[in-house]
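Give me structure tokens for this 325-residue protein.
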Amino acid sequence: MSLKPQIESGRFANPGGPVTGTARDALRWALTRKPTRWPRWLDNPPPATVHARIEGDRLRATFVNHATVLLQLHGMNILTDPVWARRVSPSRLAGPARHRAPGIAFEALPPIDAVLLSHGHYDHLCVRTLKRLRHEHDPTVIAPLGHAALLWRRCGIDAVELDWWQGSALPGGLEATLVPARHWSARGLTDRNRALWGGFVLRARDEPTAPGVYFAGDTGFGDGGHFTLVRERLGPFALALLPIGAYEPRWFMAPQHMNPAEAVQAFELLGSPPSIGIHHGTFQLTDEAHDAPVQALGEALRAHGIDAARFRALGNGEAWQVPTD
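Here you go.
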């Protein structure tokens, strides 16, 4: 089995059908939604020490916020979907605003060698953050097909574009491979699915059988087949970053965003690697409470008899020295 994105009239499509509802569905949600009110501001736990580099075979992951994680491995510092902006919106004045500070201040970042961008939604591709990263760190930026023009025009970044299952070499002996996700892309009213979406697997080029790191990006669960295929083709994994938030109401969000129970199913399909729940607790994008994803994750882990230490929901700024043996 080989999962590939479909292209229909110049737009990418998920194998197995669309993951977004109709315009009528979106209107129904807008008119009937009853979002739980979040506190105006939430405090972070005391931040972990930021290390300049992690050498050898150690693996350290620091949850910054939302889908932004600082991965430190093979002497490399890699950010996933970096967002330090106050809002995840085309406007500085409107749109989802943060309810928590980033867990690492931008000024406290170690040297950033690479950035992995899963897709173009504003809560994952933040132009203001990427401009600053280019100016202060000049990292290698890897994104799915269709994003290079935007990144060059808006950020001055000469990005590497990948299709699903394509890989690109990174400094430090690593390779980043774009893998399937069940999602979609858009930054305006006319560009829906003109660019691809996906997750990433990081592996050592000279140790192809050594456990890698899986960043799922933004994804629905579907039938779980893409998780099984990623494990079969690129596993095993020393760490998985799995989204657990932005999932209510299920009738509208289920095709595009996993809930915590589905994230636990994905964890098992991936071979139960040490995992971190991402995509929750900083920006209110959907209707559930700010702490609902973490609570529901705990319930799902208990229901499956899984040690909560294997699948963690870190606070912004918390780090995990992931066991690699």
